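agent: user wants the structure for NADH:ubiquinone reductase (non-electrogenic) from Marine Group I thaumarchaeote. delegating to structure tool.
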Amino acid sequence: MPQIKKILILGGGFGGINVLKTIQNKFKNEPNIRISIVSKDNYFLYTPMLPQVSSGLIHPSDITIPIRKLCKQAEFYQASISSMDLEQKLVTITRTFDGKVRALDYDYLIIALGSNTNFFDNKNIEEHSFVIKTVEDAIAIHDQIIHMLESAAQTSDVDFKKKLMTFTVVGSGFAGVETMGEINYLVRESVKNFYPSIGEENISMNLVASEEFILPELGPKLGKDAGKYLRKAGVNVITNTKAVDAGEDFAQLDNGEKIPCMTLIWAAGVVIDPIISSLKCKHGKSGKLKVGKYLRLTEYENIFALGDCALITNPSTGEAYPPTAQNSIHQSATVANNLYSMITGK
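agent: tool returned. relaying tokens verbatim.
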């Protein structure tokens, strides 16, 4: 009787879900292949559209799909990862709703865990800023914008009105730039059509970028063109600058400028989960898992890693691929095909 092979996928983002879909298709109706997937959320989230949720352009249900709906022949666990023992081939998970702990064994492991928001140990910024990682984050930003509009429309204090109508986004990657674009449009259109008493001259939009141009993933030409477009739309793009402090009504920049604002959104970086960075294997400087050309850990041929948690370099440039949804999708195809070849020998 053929031996049963257990495939365990950690992560329900772009990487994990696309690996799941591909290997289910490749091992369709194969009784000796058992697939399991673990995710802290019971839905797949199309994260690139979170800025559109924050502006109210689309509904959260438009960018979420129940993971169980995608599990054609896989078992799903809604749980967080507590620990991983790569030598013993065991992953300990903690069930979300009641904290029950369970150990899952595997023959093949796919690590596709995402990253956490990096506040660079700045507690003030962490306390006084919004982030844009989850559906709940996007809804909170949208609620904040509406609250600011309503408050500004009901005050005659011009300075206070300007503070309410000042929105600052720190971080010039895709998340930060798209969030600023959506907020800028929502606020300006709302003031123009529904809150005329606020006055468009009292709106201030600030995008803080640590580099010379925004969207560094796209290179200087496209990044600078995107910056020009935002400036034309009324956004104050502040380059070569970092936010170093924040309070309830201000954001402090390292160039000495203090921006009076009631809404600060932090999209300035990510950090690898300690569960990943503490694994006993090779890591990059940021804690990402080092993988070879087949996207396997160099020490463990049965373990693949992709997405935010993996250090994957472009062979042409030697630079690491940025942690984007598009790259995760491409990597998932590589992982799924290589895993299939390992198991079947084809």
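agent: one observation worth passing along. The first helix runs from residue 14 to 26.
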